[in-house]
Amino acid sequence: MKNFVSMKHYSKHELLQLIKLANDIEQHGIQPFNQQLFAANLFFEPSTRTKMSFVVAQRKLGLEVLDFMSDVSSVKKGESVYDTAKTFESIGASLLVVRHPQDNVVHQLANQITVPIINAGDGKGEHPTQCLLDLLTIYQEFEKFSGLKVGIIGDIKHSRVARSNAYALSTLGAKVYLSSKTEWQDHSLPYQYIDIDDAVEHCDVVMFLRIQHERHENQASNDHYLEKYGLTAEREKRMKPHAIILHPAPVNRGVEIADELVECNRSRIFKQMTNGVSARMAVIYRLLEGGGITHEKPINQRKAIISK
Length: 308
Prior knowledge:
This protein has 2 domains: 7-127 and 275-304, Rossmann fold, CATH 3.40.50; 128-272, Rossmann fold (3-Layer(aba) Sandwich), CATH 3.40.50.1370. The protein is an alpha/beta fold. It is globular. The strands form 2 sheets. The chain has a 5-stranded parallel β-sheet, sandwiched between helices. Strands 2-1-3-4 form a 4-stranded parallel β-sheet, sandwiched between helices. The longest helix is centred in the C-terminal third of the chain and has 22 residues, at 269-290. Mean pLDDT is 91; it is low at 294-308. It is 36% helix and 13% strand. Strand 3, helix 4 and strand 4 form a beta-alpha-beta unit. It is built from 10 helices and 9 strands.
């Protein structure tokens, strides 16, 4: 694994191995690398959870963090994304974590830069590490993917989270359903659209998405969104007894999900955030190990059990 930019690139076995590694790290920890390594976090777009969990993951692995803020960098002088990335590669960064508001920018960098690149979210493209932590959360709950029904609900058209999760979940054997208001549907994704009431009643996992106002040409109104398209208290009562609620956050409380449900017994939203650290540690570890950097105490690699 040279880069981590898209969930399209991985087989069922590869995804399960990565999930198992993240789960092992979550349960048992891992020894940090025993040599000086630098990780550059190039965030050209605002972030709280993704950026901070990368920082924690990097420091737990013993990496030194090179922070970057585009508003006080040479980007303000006209420097290209490529030249910024090339600068960090040139001064010794061992890997780059890149978040950018434009589609495909991270994919292009992965073909231009020699050190590993991690996609921390690119426009409406993908968000593979968010997907991995979502997969880890589902795995910890059900210990399988085959046969699960997962509903991804909300602003599908503008969501990189929806895209990465739909690709990976279907690869792992889950049945993926989408639910969205008509103008936010993305029919380039080959998955069935169903009504939200059908999704909450029949799915084992319901994943709600933030309304991506910053990506809309016309500002959408939140009026009555919860009642029409969100998770209300009444809809939650009709969920399967074992079903869980996910959301990549930040949550617009009272819009995508009723405020009282954000931390209810079904919700795994803050567990997702916890899992973000171990998921990102797993990706960084695998990339650096694959690049020939020797780990002091390799984690016990167990063969992934593929659920039937």
